[in-house]
Write a structure and sequence with these properties.
The structure holds 2 protein chains of 2 kinds.
Chain A (H helix, E strand, L loop, with lengths): L10 E7 L2 E7 L5 H8 L18 E4 L2 E4 L12 E3 L12 H8 L9 H14 L5 H7 L11 H18 L1
Parallel strand pairs in A: 1-5
Antiparallel strand pairs in A: 1-2, 3-4, 3-5
Helix pairs in contact in A: 2-5
Chain B lengths: L5 E3 L4 H11 L3 E4 L5 H6 L7 E4 L9 E3 L5 E5 L4 H6 L1 H6 L1 H8 L4 H6 L2 H7 L6 H7 L3 E6 L2 E6 H4 E3 L2 E2 L5 E9 L6 E7 L7 E9 L6 E9 L6 E2 L1 H7 L4 H6 L21 H24 L3
Parallel strand pairs in B: 1-3, 2-3
Antiparallel strand pairs in B: 4-5, 5-10, 6-7, 6-10, 8-9, 11-12, 12-13, 13-14
The chains are: A alpha+beta, B alpha+beta.
Chain lengths: ~170, ~290
């Protein structure tokens, strides 16, 4: 004998992802990373350490870098989420993406979306960040391939490009 | 993946307290979630109810108390807000410096000071630094608010004096005595610190000798703690001697209730505590000697 159907535990979640308003129905325990990857098909943000140490899942929540693997989707209600997929315009890549390409600021590329989101957030707030500040800001984004030298070169190139564009 | 739970959105401390009373041990207070959600991923505790304290009004305040005697930090103020606060930077520069070193930028964007203190992770920066500032916590329960010295609030690893029917609403930090200078140093090869040391020195009027010293060590024992014997030994010492490196500091970790863990053996942690007490005192002494 079957009982009544289980109550629908899902929350209605209205948020803005990469500039587009979306309304979703998610269980309370849904992590932002799973909603982005599974419900919205935005697989640029990566799951790696799953304990917010490595930075591969970095997305921007109201402009601030967060670990999507350790933030509830619930926290995105009424706020804006920016992922790597939302960075480029129709015509061209974001200057930070272009700088990573030009400087080969990646090898396997698994950390790159998170790295680029972290750099984008930092340059938005501190376009003239010193090399020491850049290193400090990126301390929580781990790359196992590059040795970081080409990443730091990419950040410096992005800073120059953004300064030229803003001049 | 996280186990299933329900999220509650109290509007007042009283509502949060009532939710705790109703759901008992199956409920957890939830602010930034930077510790709680990771613990839940590990399967620790059967949490079926998250009480989101961020929906309570007025817990995001960061301002001087109306009498000007203390800084009042609401329970949901993030590490990021603290590291960037002009008030913290000008009145409590060591605390702003410590906050800037907490974990990484993503943790600091969501993690809160109140959550950090309630979670009572032993390998953490804020409790150590707040102890030398003689911070207090304000707790709201069924019987109304009460204040507790942070030293009495920190009970053990993952254990605080927060009652089952209470929530932490604010952290209060008294303004330091005139001329006081402080330093916080940490060391570690992992994400969390292996050793954290805070020193606060109040010099005499001439800025020559120590009038009052406060030293705290965290991460080494089950809970961050002051070192009263070391503090007494420092009283009256010339600041110049501390700045040059106080030899007795090297053995200051010997009496600590050290716990061996993934970060190192008890013996290693005691030795590192001594090294960093010496360095923190040197840095605080240099700042204390400099004219305001």
């Amino acid at each position: 004998m079957s009982g009544p159907p289980p109550p629908d535990r899902r929350l209605q979640l209205s948020t803005t992802v990469n500039g587009r308003p979306v309304t979703l129905h998610v269980v309370p325990e849904a992590l932002l990373l799973d909603v982005l990857r599974e419900d919205l098909g935005l697989t640029g943000s990566k799951r790696s350490c799953d304990v917010q140490v490595c930075g591969a899942c970095t997305v921007l929540l109201d402009g601030l870098p967060v670990s999507a693997c350790a933030v509830l989707a619930y926290e995105a209600r009424g706020r804006t989420v920016l992922t790597i997929e939302g960075l480029a315009s129709e015509e061209r890549l974001h200057p930070v993406q272009e700088a990573f390409l030009a400087a080969s600021g990646f090898q396997c590329g698994f950390c790159t979306p998170g790295m680029i989101m972290a750099v984008t957030a930092m340059l938005e707030e501190a376009p003239a960040a010193t090399p020491a500040e850049v290193r400090e800001h990126l301390r929580g984004n781990i790359c196992r391939c590059t040795g970081y030298v080409s990443i730091l070169a990419a950040v410096a190139a992005a800073q120059r490009a953004l300064a030229r564009a803003g001049a | 993946m996280l186990p299933p739970f329900e999220i509650h959105q109290p509007a007042t401390p009283a509502e949060a307290v009532a939710l705790r009373a109703r759901h008992g041990e199956s409920a957890a207070l939830y602010a930034g979630g930077s510790e709680l959600l990771l613990a839940m991923k590990e399967g620790l505790g059967a949490v079926e109810h998250l009480i989101d304290v961020k929906t309570i009004g007025g817990l995001d305040t960061l301002a001087l108390a109306s009498d000007g005697a203390a800084l009042v930090i609401g329970a949901t103020v993030t590490h990021r807000a603290l590291e960037r606060s002009p008030l913290l930077r000008s009145r409590f520069p060591m605390l702003a410096d410590m906050e800037r070193q907490v974990a990484n930028v993503r943790v600091r964007a969501v993690g809160t000071l109140g959550g950090n203190l309630c979670f009572a992770e032993p390998h953490s920066d804020p409790p150590t630094a707040l102890l030398v500032h003689e911070a207090r916590v304000v707790l709201h329960g069924g019987a109304g608010p009460r204040r507790l010295a942070l030293a009495d609030f920190l009970v053990g690893p993952y254990e605080s004096a927060l009652g089952p029917d209470e929530i932490l609403t604010h952290v209060e930090i008294p303004l330091p005595p005139p001329r006081a200078a402080a330093a916080y140093l940490k060391f570690g090869l992992r994400e969390r610190p292996t050793v954290g040391v805070a020193a606060l020195l109040v010099p005499d009027v001439a800025r020559v000798a120590v009038a009052e010293a406060r030293v705290a060590v965290g991460c080494v024992g089950p809970v961050a703690a002051r070192l009263p014997e070391v503090e007494r030994a420092l009283s009256g010492l010339p600041l110049a001697a501390l700045e040059a490196g106080w030899p007795s500091a090297e053995t200051s970790g010997e009496r600590l209730d050290a716990v061996g863990d993934l970060h190192g053996s008890a013996e290693y942690k005691r030795a590192m505590a001594g090294v960093f007490v010496k360095r923190a005192l040197a840095q605080a002494a240099r700042r204390a000697r400099a004219a305001a």
